[in-house]
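Exercise: predict the fold of this chain.
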Amino acid sequence: MPNISITIPENNQSIVRPIVYNIIDQLQDITKITKDSLIFYPGDSNKVQTPGSDIDSKNNRSALFGTNKINFIEVDEDYDIDYLGTTSVSSKNHINIFSDDKLGVFISPIYSTNKLSIRYKYRTPSKSEALRWRDDFRMNLSRYRDINVHDITYHYDIPLEFLLVLKFIHQNREENPDLAYGQKYEEYVKSYFTDKLTLISDLSANDTRLVIAETQSRVMGIFDINDVPEKPERDDTDGTWSIGFTYKITYDKVIGCNMKYPIIIHNKLLPINLIEFVDTAKNADKDIAYASDYVSALSRFETDRTLNRIKHPDQVLSIPSFDDFLITSTPSYTGSVFVALSEVEEDKRTLINLEELGDITLDKDILQYIKEVEYPYLGKIYQSPFYISLYRDKYLARDDILICDNNLNIKSTVDLDLRRQHRVRFSILDNLAMLREPFFLRVRNYPKVLLKYTKAVYEILSFHPDFINLEGYDRINNVDWNNLMRLINGLTYQETGKPTGTFYNTGSQGSNWPYKSGSKGLFKNIPDHVYNEFKQHRVKQRQVQIFGIVATRKDNVDKL
């Protein structure tokens, strides 16, 4: 799912200035400054509009003189560095302004905690009024009224890039008549945006924008006690008196928007430039060497290692490669080989073909084995080491919903809803003890398949001489078969001497497996560093170290 964050086009005129005027209006009530005084807020340009020159100045077209009461405003703003590390960019910490739950399309604002300092200078022709205002200010400060709570209103633009993405999403949504909802683009946007959505434009209507009008409540403001007004200052040029103060607020400023959307809408991929995002700045495959345990421990905080913990490139192959679907639930003892996003065929059942996986290819021996023998069992959990499962949107479907035919087509047993997303997960069991006995009878005629599968799950067996010797067999006899099961599971029979029946002992998942010391040590001939490395990183549930044995990308085939 693409996850895009873009800064809003402009935030000074739409956010900062309205907030400043809100605060000034409320400060005039708090400090009892008459509201008939003019406000000069030049901003960054240091230019003030000529009074009476704008279209709204119907009652203010008189000339200004030295006796006029004027409020001069200077503003300084910066982010609060204490909150920089906790700024939520792509997580679900804020209410969405666009929410289409059916398609999984969401837009939410990004807030930055900012400090706004307002330098307020009040000019009046009366010294008495300036002194009265100062004394009232001091009196309120002594009664702990230096802290106030404000409501601020503003608006912010929706990035045009997001509106363009919504346009393509709407096209896919309405393209197929059998799946369309019958909404025009304007109706679709209006239906799923918040009620705060509004339209603004300039006087000529040439610049029209969709914006979100917003109000923040309980914004804390405080007078700067280090800047308490002492005495009013006289301006000898016009005989006026000036006095001022500094007022500070901390608020959450909208600095951008985040958008999440699926890469497929109504069984059709979005344009490739909207869904294929590759971050080349971080190398998740980087090999890292460390000189000490201390440095190695600190490495867990490095970006590359963090990305690998989220999704290691050797664990799950994605089709297409830029699909970042996160598997949230899996059957026990299965490890993912690949997850394929599917465009369902016209029959509403056919999903993918195991021989046509784009830049992914299954091992040719395993593929041949599935095609000749194993395909009827792929959709039945624990009947085969290879298992296919279906995810509809982000949810795992029931066990028996997928089948595989002798042409390696993966199909659903029921008609699929083409409005939903469908992904096929191809996995292998990471514990042979869970397999039913009929599988072992089938696979003994395919020793290459068994050894490749076993090495994918139990990599350490690749170093065992008895295991390697089975590579050239056409069929595994009973003696070698029992030895192989002993290597994998520790014991062929229970300690009482009774056979395990249709299940082998689950020693491969035990905390002490693989054991090395003692007379029963299965891996005593393997070098210590190989043994310790495997035991530390041994395969566990939902993790499969592929190493090009079961499946790989086609551009890596020549390297195997």
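Check your answer against the key: The CA atoms of residues 6 and 172 lie 23 Å apart.
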